[in-house]
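TL;DR need structure tokens for one chain.
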Amino acid sequence: MWNKKEPDSLTSMQPGDVLVSHGSAVTAHEISIVPDAPHTAVATHDAAVSDGCAEAEDLGVDAWLTEDQTHVVKIASNR
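>> reply
TL;DR here they are.
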């Protein structure tokens, strides 16, 4: 019997972590605190990653990046 399992990165994300995301329908990257809706939009990828990592450091949490809403990569570790 096949058992579907989420990737480790999705199961490792915790409430309060910072998520930088880029949906295919929007040009800007969005920053949110998991599990809340985005609270900031940033025009470029580099600026969004920098801002997301800085916010995660200030909060003492991890930061994550997704470009396709499926695959998630940890970009900062502050726990």
